[in-house]
Design brief:
Chain lengths: 370, 405
């Protein structure tokens, strides 16, 4: 459905990778330009380059990557990016519904076409996707999109309200996928669409638990069995390199030193206070006798104060040595060891939809095969 | 036995794979027993399958039936059991207020039940009798009664259900049986890998599968007989991928598209052992020796053909679930990938993929390497009894995805 050539040709759909958060798509059209904040490019310059090429603009700085589209990349390039989180859902549904090359799949509604693209890729040219969309403008747009992508041989798009009018196929589909506001209204039609020589499968995609419950009753009443429900999410991780975490023994050394310094200071303060007190008393006693002596005494006290600062400074140096001995890296020493850590990114999707699955056994169709 | 309607008559490579409709002789079938246990049986012609206390039956009884049905064993014959629909249970006033543990409630002894079973009384009748005799049955809530009946059914019913050999079911079977052997590849993670690697019919892929063939089986299924899959393994001869057994792939959908090299033969400086031409060794060779030499020659030709194919490159994707350092694998194999090819690496350990991501981030030929994990939760959906299942799986492993540019 998309180019399988190794090199880019005129008319190819390209995915242009600017950054992780800026992914766009374009159809290579000579004469057209691609302008972005990572430079201005001419489509004509892309022709003949291998897929995956890193391209720089003719003038200025910046670069882009030209990628081969996949349903996943194409979904990333859609204007509403929330769709990407459906990768987990689409992949899981594809497996549960046993969608494989050659399969015939019914889908309603078409919506953005994310599921359609993904499933069309999996069923291949030997398979078929019958897609139904009740919104006329959206249906025409999707049909146009599929035909331009060369998917018309795989995907047939019908504008129709399947809840009211059912599907255009009967007894041939291996799997039915319903992404509708009221899937229970289409369950009986789905039963008609499914083939009856082997177990058929259905998936209903609903965000609310109330919808699930109504769907389950409808499936049950229509003879579907093995009804089950899943929730699946993709949790992206962010990986970082950080300095190796320091041992607590370095902290305990630090704290012990701080305590020692504090104790020293306290002792000095006590000593100073005592001296001051003694001197003050002496001064008071002397004041009565000899006035001029005061100046000399003050100078003495100052000198003594400088003396007592010294031990404190010495203690601080010892603390630095102790810290280094305890394994604390000094900025001047060898670079700190790095380690790789990862955690789930802070803002992740917590819910997409509930996936309700069921099977329709051959014997559940009108006439048992036995 | 009857031939499946689709047959395997169409052997053109562009034809869609026959979607297996019916159980065939020679298939490996997974049978779910009333206890919930799943067991694998190979349906050999003229053999009898013995399910222990659940009974036994002749293989021919099962052949020709579509997969997914429940069968009851009645005197070594099989009878299809129609699927049951979910019953809505009425809320009653009953509570367990008056039900105490340890009280004598069932006058029917184990010996009596055993003799009922021996005399061929149907499981449903035994359960009915047990209920009639049960002293406190009427005191139970409807939910509790339902649970009681289900428990007894699992105990006495002589039936089983065939499990369709879909990728989903086979992966679930192996994950439950021994998740270590498939390196924690849970079906949600595996499905994401297939999508991220853009596996599609006619694609050409490289795979390193130390997960018992789970990845190889998945890719083969999504290729549907068209395309190419080259695996690199750590053993001398092509590995037996045990997971492929349950997939029941028709040979013609596998042999033409799957080839294997090992880490020695995938090395470009590997020197193949030269084959002596019969004439070169001088003198006439016996017919037996000629056959032997020709056989070796053929094997050697296939090997060098596969090596040339690898070195010629042009592959669309690389998928790895290996016990070896993933970066060493990427360094060896990414030169053979096309530009814009997808690379997907799975590991049971976050550390392995985050280390890999950190290494790749420094190398411009790998675009935007990213790490993710999949969350999966299953629910019981019954009227008035909908809730997530009480036990679940811990992890389905971690995935690193990047694009070669």
């Amino acid at each position: 459905m998309w180019s399988t050539s190794t090199h880019i040709a005129v008319g190819d759909l390209l995915v242009v990778w600017l950054t992780r958060d800026m992914i766009q798509s374009l159809v290579v059209t000579p004469g057209a330009d691609f302008n972005s904040r990572f430079g201005n490019y001419r489509h004509a310059d892309f022709v003949g380059l291998p897929y995956g090429s890193k391209v720089r603009p003719r003038t200025g700085t910046g670069f882009i990557h030209l990628l081969r589209p996949t349903p996943e990349l194409w979904t990333l390039a859609l204007p509403h990016r929330t769709q990407i989180l459906y990768l987990a859902d689409i992949a899981f549904i594809t497996s549960w519904l046993d969608i494989r090359p050659g399969a015939i799949v019914v889908e309603a509604g078409t919506g953005s076409g994310s599921f359609t693209h993904s499933v069309a890729r999996t069923v291949g040219s030997a398979g078929k996707v019958h897609s139904y969309e009740f919104h006329e403008a959206r249906a025409s747009k999707a049909r146009y999109k599929f035909s331009r992508r060369g998917m018309a041989n795989i995907v047939s798009l019908t504008h129709r309200n399947v809840c009211m009018d059912g599907f255009t196929v009967a007894g041939t589909a291996g799997a039915v996928f319903l992404d509708l506001p009221a899937p229970w209204e289409a369950v009986e039609h789905a039963k008609t669409a499914l083939r009856n020589d082997r177990a058929g499968r259905i998936c209903c995609f609903s965000p609310c638990i109330e919808q699930v419950l109504r769907t389950v009753s409808a499936l049950n009443e229509s003879g579907f069995t093995d009804i089950t429900m899943y929730e699946t999410l993709l949790r992206p991780h962010e990986v970082n390199q950080v300095p190796a975490l320091p041992s607590v023994s370095s902290i305990s050394a630090k704290l012990k030193d701080a305590a020692r310094v504090r104790e020293e200071k306290r002792l000095i303060q006590i000593a100073t206070a005592r001296t001051r007190h003694a001197e003050k008393r002496k001064r008071e006693e002397d004041a009565d006798e000899l006035e001029p002596k005061k100046v000399k005494t003050d100078a003495d006290a100052g000198a003594r104060a400088e003396d007592v600062e010294m031990p404190g400074a010495a203690v601080r140096e010892t603390a630095a040595e102790a810290g280094a001995a305890a394994g604390e890296a000094d900025p001047g020493d060898a670079p700190p060891a790095m380690q790789i850590v990862s955690k789930v990114v802070q803002e992740v999707r917590g819910h997409t939809s509930y996936l309700t699955f069921a099977r329709l056994l051959p014997s559940a169709h009108a006439a048992p095969s036995q | 036995m009857s031939e499946p309607p689709n047959g395997q008559s169409s052997s053109t490579l562009t034809a869609p794979p026959p979607i297996i409709n019916a159980i065939r002789t020679g298939d490996n079938v997974l049978l779910r027993l009333p206890t919930g246990d799943v067991r694998n049986f190979k349906l050999e012609a003229d053999a009898t399958i013995n399910l222990g206390k659940f009974g036994s039956f002749h293989v021919s009884e099962l052949v020709g039936h579509p997969y997914g049905l429940t069968h009851e064993i009645v005197e070594k014959k099989l009878r299809v059991v129609l699927p049951k629909s979910i019953e809505e249970l009425e809320d009653t006033e009953a509570t367990n207020e008056l039900i105490n543990d340890g009280k004598y409630v069932q006058p029917l002894t184990a010996d009596e039940i055993e003799s009922l079973k021996q005399s061929g009384v149907h499981a449903s009748d035994i359960i009915k009798k047990q209920i009639e005799m049960h002293a406190n049955y009427s005191l139970k809530t409807e939910y509790s009664k339902d649970k009681y009946k289900k428990r007894k059914e699992a105990k006495y019913s002589k039936s089983f259900t065939t499990i369709e050999p879909t990728l989903f079911n086979v992966c679930e079977y192996w994950f439950k049986k021994d998740q270590n052997r498939i390196r924690d590849l849970r079906i949600d993670s595996l499905s994401q890998m297939l999508n991220l690697a853009n596996i599609q019919p006619h694609g050409r892929y490289l795979a390193v599968d130390d997960a018992s063939g789970m990845v190889v089986s998945a890719i083969l299924e999504r290729l549907g007989g068209n395309g190419r899959l080259l695996t690199i393994c750590d053993v001398e001869s092509p590995p037996a991928y045990p997971v492929m057994t349950q997939m029941n792939f028709p040979k013609e959908l596998v042999t033409p598209i799957l080839s294997s090299l090992n880490w020695a033969t995938a090395d470009d400086d590997y020197t193949p052992i030269t084959i002596l031409e019969p004439s070169a060794s001088g003198g006439a060779l016996s017919d037996k020796a000629k056959v032997r030499v020709n056989k070796r020659k053929a094997a050697s030709d296939i090997l060098s053909g596969t090596r040339e194919e690898l070195f010629a490159g042009g592959f669309d994707g690389l998928i790895v679930a290996s016990e070896y350092d993933p970066f060493s694998i990427l360094e060896r194999l990414s030169p053979y990938l096309n530009g814009s090819a997808n690379i997907v690496v799975h590991s049971p350990h976050l550390q392995t993929v985050s280390d890999l991501q950190t290494t790749l981030r420094l190398r411009p030929q790998y675009l935007a390497p990213s790490v993710s994990e999949s969350f999966l939760r299953r629910y019981q959906v019954l009227p008035g009894r909908t809730h997530p299942t009480m036990t679940t799986t811990g992890s389905g492993g971690y995935i690193m995805h990047t694009i070669k540019v």
